[in-house]
Amino acid sequence: MSSAQKSNTPGTQPENISKSSSEGVVEDNDYTLSRVPAHAKKPFWKILLIRIGSICCVSQLVLGAALGYGMTFWGAFWATMLGSVLLEIISWALGTAAAREGLSTSLLSRWTGFGKMGSAIFGGVMAISMVGWFGVQNSVFGNGLSSIIPFTDFLGKFETPGWSIVTGLAITLLVVFGVNAIADFATVLVPLFIIVVLYASFHVFQSTPFMTLFTSPAPGPALSLGAATTMVTGGFIAGAIATPDYGRYLKNGKQVFWMTLIGTFVGELGMNLLAVLLAHATGTNNVVDMMMKTSGIVGVIIVITSTVKLNDINLYSSSLGLSTMINAVFNRKLNRNVLVWSLGIVGTFLSVIGILKYFTNFLTLLGVAVPPVAGIMVIDYYILRRQGRKDLEATRASGTLPSSVEKWNPVSLIVWVLGFAIGEITSIYSIGIPGLNSLIISALLYWVVMEIMAKVKGVKTIEFAHTSQVL
Description:
Elements lengths: L2 H5 L36 H12 L2 H13 L2 H29 L3 H4 L6 H34 L10 H18 L2 H29 L4 H4 L9 H17 L1 H5 L5 H30 L4 H19 L1 H24 L5 H17 L6 H11 L1 H14 L2 H10 L8 E2 L3 H19 L5 H24 L8 E2 L4
Antiparallel strand pairs: 1-2
Helix pairs in contact: 2-8, 2-12, 2-14, 3-10, 3-12, 4-10, 4-12, 4-17, 6-7, 6-13, 6-14, 6-15, 7-14, 7-15, 8-12, 8-13, 8-14, 10-16, 14-15, 16-20, 17-19, 17-20, 19-20
């Protein structure tokens, strides 16, 4: 029986149905390894706030301040614009596929070019990447709080690790309650964050000739356009590829388009460029110092605590990626809460040991290593439209998963490695924008190789061996 025929048979049962604890699974209302059903879709504004919250955060100010410290305003503008356009396209394409299919990024990859075992590798990479971001953001959180609120006297030099432990475990607890809790938290903190940043900007502009900020030289060492654009794309490329993790709760592609567009303009362009101006006005790339100079301790607390809005998504996506990997490798569906707690503890540990000092290098590497995956998924889903997409479409109405999936797609894995290698080479020799290079080259290479293989074999699309063990 062909995979297309199998798709017409009942698909796999939705995962959110309770199972015995002996199987290591309990009821999962966040649909970790199943489609989000129509009745579980969320209002547009809730998902929009999650999106804005994932961009409007301290790390975005850190990035904008880094650009402003090493570039003129217009140099930073073009770096931000180029990076933002790329992120918008990736987010919209993947988010639309997720809204249609109701699948997280790592699970969607199983039917969009990577197969079951390929999705395990990708899920593992996403889990590591996002828990790494969790550590980075939690370091910012802990460092910021320790600078204004001493943890306890007896901890002495360990004030920052102390706060990092508290904040890391608190965010982990929030994520345990799922996407609804994440949306509720964003509803409170997103408006507060934007108000504080706008107030700080207004305060600076009152004491500094506004027009001079657009023409003033960079206060710090020069930063090239290629490096800056890679930092912009790298700073949120993992977040862009993780768009399906919450975009799957939207109803259609139109909602995804407006979510990504508004989020990009408010977050990437808005926050980045305000931070650039603040860096020029204050002569520092230290966000905490910047906010202290302009909005006082209350502003610093709000800005630092807004890190939660991004970090909960980091941990949420990491748990989805790890769940996909474990399921693909061991054919088991583990309790999502156990995964969240495990990853939260690991991420908290990373923040305690000081992963923040690797922030820029981490951004640059991520900006080159992750984009090839997005390019491959978009080409496979929208252009090649292979059996995986047909099977997803055939089972969409029933709300189940297809009854078969490719085991491996060696082409996508080889192209992923080649795309990353080419991106790294162009980064070393400063050729173009490494993150964009890796994405475009991987997408085109995957498309060309798959088309050539299909013509050589005399078939419409290339398919690799399938398995009926979907989960």
